[in-house]
Amino acid sequence: xxxxxxxxxxxxxxxxxxxxxxxxxxxxxxxxxxxxxxxxxxxxxxxxxxxxxxxxxxxxxxxxxxxxxxxxxxxxxxxxxxxxxxxxxxxxxxxxxxxxxxxxxxxxxxxxxxxxxxxxxxxxxxx
Length: 127
Fold this sequence. Notes:
The protein is of the alpha+beta class and about 130 residues long. Helices cover about 80% and strands about 15% of the residues. The protein has one helix and two strands, in the order αββ. The protein has one helix spanning about 5-105; strands at about 105-115, 115-125. It starts with a helix and ends with a strand. The model has no long low-confidence stretch (mean pLDDT about 85).
């Protein structure tokens, strides 16, 4: 083989080797980029999940606050109705007791005032 032929063969081998090295370097770079992209996507998914959980927690806190306020208002309304009913019952009972005491026994009588003393003639009828 002559030197020119050897030189061409050496150049072909060197270019093939350089091409392999470049392709290997590009493959490693692509793999590294792919790993970084996978990591970034997983971080984005974690951050999205954290934001979703935070939003859910805030929503549930607000809902519980609304439920508690509604429960307080309903309790206040029920207590107000109860107190009104109790007051009405007390009024009805007091009127009924007065009426019962008035109709239980009849008190009949007459009185006269004479000079210095009061004469009473009271007759109590129980029916």
